[in-house]
Design goal:
The protein is α/β, with parallel strands linked by helices. It has a single domain, classed as Rossmann fold (3-Layer(aba) Sandwich), CATH 3.40.50.10310. The protein is built from 9 helices and 4 strands; from the N terminus they run H-E-H-E-H-E-H-E-H-H-H-H-H. It has helices at 6-14, 38-54, 82-98, 114-127, 139-151, 157-160, 166-176, 195-204, 223-242, and strands spanning 19-24, 57-59, 103-108, 132-135. It has a 4-stranded parallel sheet with strand order 2-1-3-4, with helices on both faces. The two termini are 21 Å apart.
Length: 245
């Protein structure tokens, strides 16, 4: 929709394109080699490809700042408060409803957003009983899917990582390779990432687990794998959503 004009959007809605899909990304550090816009770039492409797979759907603009307090130790990171993000999402949905969209899909592409997006989806559905509000809010399923695609190439789960490792780095090589500092590749935290480790990150900040801000090892990332990961993730999310639409 950002690249379209209002008459064409109006025409699409009048011709049955009444589903709007938008991602909720972040502006936060992704190690010394990836740009702050990493999660939002991934959100952009996944939301677009999900809209294409669903049919009769348009991709609304991505929310590019999310809940990133645990990354604030790294310069450049911008973080919203949960109530601020909820308010922005509410305004997005109110605007889209005004134009005639009937189904609105929220796709968080940053781990820190999933819990809050899950809560706001429930609140929005109560607020707008005449709309269908759907969110893909299963963070573990999202991470597991990303890791599984890497494992198909022989990359371990620890190297694939959950933040700026092989998986996300491959995504960005495919989406905006000119923003990747390949000469800065270096492994970050390579251990398990269970409830204990996630609590450390959210309560003490990312540096408590990884001084570089990296979970995983980007050194085996490639553009070619990134292209495959993008399509697989779009397929996975679209198929999950179709069961709820």
């Amino acid at each position: 929709m950002e690249d379209m004009n209002w008459p064409d959007i109006k025409d699409k809605i009048e011709n049955g394109y009444t589903t709007a899909v938008f991602a909720i990304g972040s502006t936060e550090q992704h190690g010394p080699h990836l740009p702050l816009i990493t999660d939002s770039l991934i959100g952009d492409v996944v939301a677009l490809k999900v809209a294409e797979r669903l049919g009769n759907a348009l991709q609304a603009p991505t929310i590019r700042v999310g809940l990133s307090e645990h990354h604030l130790a790294f310069p450049g990171t911008i973080s919203l408060k949960p109530e601020t993000l909820k308010a922005v999402i509410n305004d997005f949905v109110d605007s889209l409803k005004t134009h005639g969209f009937k189904t609105i899909i929220l796709l968080p592409s940053h781990g820190g957003n999933f819990t809050t997006v899950g809560k706001v989806v429930e609140e929005l559905q109560h607020k707008h009983p005449d709309l269908k509000i759907v969110g893909f809010t299963d963070l573990q399923a999202f991470v597991d899917a990303m890791i599984s695609y890497s494992e198909e190439y022989g990359v371990t789960a620890y190297d694939a990582g959950a933040h700026a490792g092989e998986s996300e780095t491959s995504f960005i090589l495919a989406l905006a390779g000119h923003l990747v500092q390949t000469d800065r590749y270096a492994p970050g935290y390579l251990g398990p990432l269970g409830e204990k480790e996630m609590n450390i990150i959210f309560e003490q900040g990312m540096p408590a687990l990884s001084a570089k801000g990296v979970l995983g090892d980007p050194t085996t990332a490639t553009l070619e794998k990134g292209k495959v990961y993008i399509e697989k993730m779009a397929d996975f999310v679209a198929n999950e959503l179709k069961t709820r639409l």
